[in-house]
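## retry 2 of 3
previous attempt timed out at serialization; input unchanged, resubmitting
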Amino acid sequence: MTIVGFALAAFAVVLAWPIPEAVAASQDRARRTADPVASVIIWQAIGVAGGFSLISACIAFALAPLVHVPGVPLDDALDWWRWPLLVVGVGLLALLLGSLLWEARSARLHRARHREVLSLVSEPREGTPETRVIDTDHALAYSVAGGSGTTVVSTGLLALLEDEERDAVLAHEREHLRLRHDLLTLAFASWHRMLPFLPATRTALEAVSASIEIMADDAARRTVSDRAFVRAL
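## retry succeeded, writing output
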């Protein structure tokens, strides 16, 4: 059990630094040809495996004596110094799950407040009530998840682009909503907020964010000509 703990701890360290850096560098080199869906799955696997390894290592070290003396009460089998490891392992699990739930709640409240503000400062686009238009010269477009989703564009953007180019931009934002990309980034944002000092959390969040943008771009490219797509970018 102690050997298992050391192995899990070493695995957690490797997943916390060298592997994320190597994967990010590899994906950067193959950005044009890499499958963005596969990229997101890889980062999810790294995150889950890293967290599971660290938590399991703490618990394995703490409960190692129980393997050799089965049936003995927990208080009698565990030395005093093993209890803090058990607390750390269980605490990390609770912290990760609690942070994820907190991030989800915060995101839901933020989106609700944002939609309230949008109802005051924007108007529905004619023919597409799920699209809101903000009156500003700045060219901007984004989406707000929740419910059926809302796509937001500015008058400056609509004036700048031709019809097909506008379609590309709207298709990009609607793909974010259709695939619920906000949920894909939720766990990574939560881990980065909880462990900002760990480079792997920032690397993973940036890589996943880039991958979902490529996924949305691919959807937009299928709806318009290459010329319109390039101009919209």
